[in-house]
Amino acid sequence: MIPDSDLIAPDLPFIDLHRHLDGNVRLSTIVELGAKHGVELPGDTIETLRPHVQVTGIEPDLVSWLAHLLWMIRVLGDYDDCRRIARENVEDAKAAGLDYVELRFSPYYMARPHGLDPAAVVEAVIAGIDEGVEATGLPVRLIGILSRTHGPEACTVELEALLAHRDRITALDLAGDEASWPAELFVEHFARGRDAGWRVTVHAGEAGGAASVWAAIDLLGATRIGHGVRSIDDPRLLDTLAERAIGLELNLTSNLQTSTVPSLAEHPLKAFLERGLLATINTDNPVVIGFDLRHEYESAATAAGLDRPSIRQAQANALEIAFLDGAERAQVRGARR
Predict the structure, then answer these.
(1) With contact defined as beta carbons under 8 Å apart, do 283 and 16 qualify?
(2) d(CA 9, CA 80)
(3) Which residues neighbour 26 within 8 Å (Cβ) at sequence distance 6 or greater?
(4) What number of CA atoms fall less than 13 Å from residue 226's CA on the CB side?
(5) What is the C-alpha separation between 172 and 151, in angstroms, rounded?
(6) 3-state secondary structure at position 68
(7) What is the pLDDT of residue 6?
(8) Does the annotation count 123 as an active-site position?
(9) Per-residue pLDDT for 302 more than 60?
């Protein structure tokens, strides 16, 4: 149920399309799993751990911001831990009032600290999602991430792990150090993903420029872009995004914290919506940014200059670009009627 709000439209589903499950681990779970596996954490209570995981200021760049996620995966010592955090992500999305959520994860990133098998990590995540869906009734789709930070060879291993469960994966994503690992290195990976029937969304235009967004579209086949902030720098790209109905998954607080934008007032979301682009409002990693989707709609969006009609349009756009077929979309839409 959507929390009472003057800005969140009660007749439209409340949707988060860009939400990392491996970057959204409860602080209490990190503490418990750290103790379970003997992982030395920078804090052994929720409050002493919080400043090492939750960003409260502005980081100089994306890579510095991503470092806050490391404690979440360092405590994933076995497959049951992976199952647990997936289940808890669904529970937390339901508690936040979401009507539909797309959760994305990188099995190689999750497997690496303790030498787990990435394919078994995928299996465990699917099991946890199933448990969460059964308990909450919340519709969930999974997006598999290739973690570009580890290079093309590691991404091949990651791709194989995801393909082993291809029927349970809805889309393929490329995330991580965008500036150092361009899309050109992952063309064959995404060709295989598209051949598997997956949709494609790519992190681009966050740490990289408009050229990175072009590459995501032209080389990788993206029909949605994660972030895409720097698209504002290229009028021809904006025209292409509009003409091809390519969705933009914007993350306001995250974009501010990673220094992708200098302030929320200078965020291009308002300009994207005024131009008719399919721009949306999402959280990225709620535990890291310290807020959930309600805050992004009610506080961050208004700070970015959005009025009630534009916030409503962003909410409607989320349903339009969600990775759902017609019947599924109608079912999610019906949740608010």
Answers:
(1) yes
(2) 38
(3) 85, 88, 92, 287
(4) 26
(5) 16
(6) helix
(7) 83
(8) no
(9) yes
Distances (CA, A) of 237 to 57, 232, 258, 328: 31, 8, 23, 30
Which domains, and CATH codes, for the chain?
15-334 (3.20.20.140)
Closest by CA to 143, choosing from 322, 277, 278, 317, is 322
Type of residue numbered 199: R
Distance separating the N- and C-terminal Cα atoms of the chain: 12
Q: Is 272 helix (H, G, I), strand (E, B) or coil?
A: helix
Predicted model pTM: 0.96
Query: Among 129, 125, 149, 127, which residue's Cα sits nearest to residue 138?
Result: 129
Q: How confident is the model at residue 165, as a pLDDT?
A: 97
Residue-wise pLDDT for 95-135, tens only, equals 999 999 999 999 999 999 999 999 999 999 999 999 999 99
Contact 14, 293 (CB under 8 A): yes
Do 296 and 283 contact (CB within 8 A), yes or no? Answer: yes
Alpha-carbon gap, residue 209 to 181, rounded angstroms: 13
The answer to whether 71 and 113 are in contact (CB under 8 A) is no
The token duo for 267 is: 């965020």
What does the DSSP assignment read for 216-258?
Answer: HHHTT--SEEEE-GGGGG-HHHHHHHHHTT-EEEE-HHHHHHT
Residue by residue, DSSP assigns 140-195 as EEEEEEEEGGGHHHHHHHHHHHHHTTGGG--EEEEES-TTTS-GGGGHHHHHHHHH
pLDDT digits 0-9 by tens, 147-198 = 999 999 999 999 999 999 999 999 999 999 998 999 999 999 999 999 999 9
- Three-state DSSP at 18 gives strand
Cα distances (Å, whole numbers) of residue 145 to 22, 29, 57, 113: 11, 23, 27, 17
Selecting among 102, 158, 178, 206, the annotated active-site residue is: 206
- pLDDT of the residue at 2: 54
Sheet bearing 15-20, strands edge to edge: 15-20, 100-105, 140-147, 171-175, 199-204, 224-227, 247-250, 279-281
What CA–CA distance (Å, rounded) separates 144 from 80? 19
Residue 192 phi/psi, 5-degree rounding, is -65, -40
Report the percentage of the chain scoring pLDDT > 70: 99
